[in-house]
Major facilitator superfamily (MFS) profile domain-containing protein (Streptomyces subrutilus), 436 residues
Amino acid sequence: MGAAMRRIQAGNALTAFGIGFTVPFLYIYVAQVRGLGSMAATSAFVAFALGALVALPVTGRVIDRRGPVPVVIGAAVAASVGAISLGLSTGLVPILLSALALGAGQAVMQPALATMIVWCSTPSTRTRAFAFQFFMQNLGLGIGGLIGGQIVDETRPGSFTLLFGIEAVMFLVLAGVIASVRMPQVQGFKDAMPKDSAPAGSGWKGLLRHKAMVQLCVLGFVLFFACYGQFESGLAAFGTEAAGISPSTLGFALAANTGAIVVAQFVVLRLVEKRRRSRVIALVGLIWTVAWVIAGFSALGHGSAMMAAAAFITTYALFGIGEAMLSPTLAPLVADLAPEGSVGQYNSAFALVKQMALALGPLGVPLGAGVPMLYIGIFVAVSLGIAWLALRLGGQLTPVQDNPSLSRVVAQGGPAVPAGPAAPAVVAGAAEPVRA
């Protein structure tokens, strides 16, 4: 990694470390420590998601026009204000406004940081760059949550204020680190996308005319709804209500998820980075199908409580392996699909899809708690649908978009990439960094 990439990754890891201090304890803080009840805590989560949904539609154009650096700095400052305000708030309205600012700031950072990584990488190195980002995010979240759990005390509101204060400082650290980054000024290439498949015009209208990107957004929504959207909502309700999983076992399951990501990330990377992205995503769908089947086994009652707990923990670990396979696949593919000058727009659109999936994730709670086997059956079908959607997406991608390792062959003077559906001629300069 160059100096710019190292600073981006360091800032990203420190921010995740700060977020890890507060994410596991937000519900307890609002509902119990501030004494506002479960409805107020739910409203805080809604405000958090609403802030993201309001900010993201306009974020992409600002990134492409002004560059990602000022966007990250502005978002980090807004998130810092939201975090410290949340830690000091005692009433419902101040908490909701703080959550709104914090949610908007965190959401805007994602596409802006992703665009910075795109600018500082090449098509052949981008896979590892995003895999490393995901690895550091999960490591930071895990360590932050572990330390935060030792500090927090439900009888002392000041301990929660301290946690939110640490988070606010980490956002300001990110702003300072990013302000010191010197972004490379490189010549972009216009033939990265086939001309006949490039969207006419820019902005949302152009993006919606881009068939491959629309299909990727649909696939991404299903992926995020079936995985992240269920972690702390439907699947947790299923485990505690139908499978009889204790809260402590649920904590072990979440730890197994993070541990699987941290342990498997670079092993998985070696296996997927030279393979077709569409087939990697399809394999994730199959792995998650197995995970949901094992989750269903935990609620059948044919074994001991220990077997049920082991099955439930295994489910979360398998989800983690799938996440490790997606991290070097989805984000680089979004960047490679983006036409020149629209990387920020495409990253923001995909971040918006993720937020929408997360916001709708709790819809699985009534099924998970009340009709558990129907819940499992639905998500087994959804996971198989992921595999089908991924293979269908592969038909819309050029050979280099589906398998970026081919760009090294072209850059080194190897045989030309075979023509495929809407394939470009030869991507001249494909090994150079893409400038948004």
Q: What stands out?
A: Residues 1-181 form a domain with the Growth Hormone; Chain: A; fold (CATH 1.20.1250.20).
